[in-house]
Backbone:
């Protein structure tokens, strides 16, 4: 059944702090709600959780898909002298469409140099004389690294970022963009060809000035969709303008070694950055096949270094999403599945309506509701999606769509007191008893996964919706 908008609608919204007391529904007093850590749909909440490469092959729930894309498939031609370039977005559009068809958003990265893959630097730049460097690190024999400080390359990358933002910024099919482009795998490093030349390797790093040129372009090109960078930018003017991703998660994440991810975030003064910008990354690939054998994940040694505690790493970094492809494309035992989903629910936000105030309206007064809304997760909900309200009758049939409103979901921070969100609308309902008011967060992806609340009444009367309470309408 489609939910048509009301003919007359008036909305009001206020934000305040309130305390709740338990009282009968529709009495006009606050009614406490029951928390449920296993409410239906929490494992597949959008914009958070573990992420497979493309579509998963088993039945582990997920809401995002990861895609790598070579730059030369998207930037197909150009002339550095005139500063004109041509683009073909078919590969990116196909990825967005494929994920959206499954109700998912994408996270992606565009690269020029992926060890062991084909060269991904646009051919027109090579034809113009861009130096290309061979290397054998990471088992590579096919890819080549461009001169990362070449003027034509930097100019082309700036143009590409602008065009990319124009094409997808704010697109509901995109969850997050990783900055990519520079370095091995687009991970913003050239190790071991870096500033430490004591190992006999040359320094191929991009200068900070050139990095900042790319970041400045990302900042101006993406004003709605969040962009994440791999390396904590201690010396960058733009370090506070982006999220970050740790691609060796729970292996080189926690304090103890200066070059681990979180110590670098600490040195850069970015430990509170998660409050406004998302944190993501990739579970260290060597860990993925065994880490769910026990809880917490078993300590194993790779290259002489022990793995870290997954729960501690998530809570320390406030991570929202992590690539973990193995768990989506291999058979899992019941123990592995349970542990994986336990960790999945730890990532990102967890919204909970702790109390509701729902007075009985008359046929001539507006229907009003106040909710105390908490975030019991480790990170905010990073996009300001709308709340929508509907009314069911005693037979659980939708009889009224009351409309939507925005409540600043990113502002509901983990660990903070509940925020009171108030909604009222002209309802046009007939006098009667047993009406129910339901609420949901509207996923702008038309068939996107619903946002589930950690409430006992989540999905109680309608899938994907939270029942707030019952009320009567009097004359």
Residues:
């Amino acid at each position: 059944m489609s939910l048509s908008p009301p003919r007359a609608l008036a909305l009001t919204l206020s934000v305040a702090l309130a305390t709740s007391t338990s009282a009968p529904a529709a009495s006009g007093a606050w009614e406490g709600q029951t928390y449920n850590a296993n409410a239906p749909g929490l494992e597949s909440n959008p914009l958070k959780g573990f992420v497979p490469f493309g579509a998963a092959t088993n039945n582990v729930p997920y809401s995002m898909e990861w895609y790598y894309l070579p730059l030369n498939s998207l930037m197909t031609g150009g002339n550095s002298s005139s500063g004109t370039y041509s683009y073909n977005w078919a590969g990116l559009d196909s990825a967005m469409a494929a994920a959206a068809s499954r109700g998912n958003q994408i996270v992606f990265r565009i690269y020029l140099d992926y060890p062991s893959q084909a060269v991904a630097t646009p051919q027109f730049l090579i034809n113009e004389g861009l130096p290309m460097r061979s290397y054998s690190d990471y088992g590579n024999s096919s890819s080549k690294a461009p001169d990362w400080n070449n003027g034509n390359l930097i100019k082309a990358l700036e143009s590409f970022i602008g065009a990319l933002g124009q094409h997808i910024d704010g697109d509901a099919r995109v969850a997050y963009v990783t900055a990519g482009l520079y370095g091995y795998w687009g991970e913003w490093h050239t190790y071991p060809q870096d500033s430490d030349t004591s190992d006999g390797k040359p320094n191929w790093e991009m200068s900070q000035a050139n990095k900042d040129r790319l970041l400045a372009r990302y900042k101006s090109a993406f004003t709605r969709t969040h962009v994440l960078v791999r390396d904590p930018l201690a010396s960058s003017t733009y370090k506070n303008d982006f999220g970050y991703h740790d691609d060796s998660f729970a292996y080189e994440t926690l304090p103890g070694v200066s070059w681990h991810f979180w110590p670098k975030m600490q040195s850069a003064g970015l430990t509170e950055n998660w409050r406004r910008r998302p944190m993501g990354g990739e579970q260290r690939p060597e860990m993925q096949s065994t880490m769910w054998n026990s809880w917490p994940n078993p300590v194993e040694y790779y290259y002489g270094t022990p793995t870290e505690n997954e729960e501690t790493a998530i809570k320390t970094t406030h991570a929202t999403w992590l690539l973990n492809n193995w768990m989506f494309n291999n058979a899992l035992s019941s123990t592995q599945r349970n542990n994986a989903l336990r960790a999945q629910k730890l990532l990102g936000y967890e919204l909970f309506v702790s109390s509701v105030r729902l007075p009985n309206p008359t046929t001539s007064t507006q229907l009003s509701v106040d909710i105390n809304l908490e975030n019991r997760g480790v990170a905010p909900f990073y996009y300001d999606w709308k709340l929508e309200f509907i009314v069911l009758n005693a037979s659980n049939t939708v009889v009224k769509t009351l409309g939507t409103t925005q409540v600043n979901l990113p502002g509901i921070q983990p660990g903070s007191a509940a925020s009171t969100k108030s909604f009222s609308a002209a309802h046009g309902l007939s006098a009667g008893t047993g009406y129910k008011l339901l609420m949901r967060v509207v996923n702008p992806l038309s068939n996107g996964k619903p946002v589930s609340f950690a409430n006992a009444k989540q999905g109680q009367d309608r899938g994907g919706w939270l029942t707030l309470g019952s009320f009567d309408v009097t004359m």
Remarks:
- The CA atoms of residues 192 and 198 lie 10 Å apart.
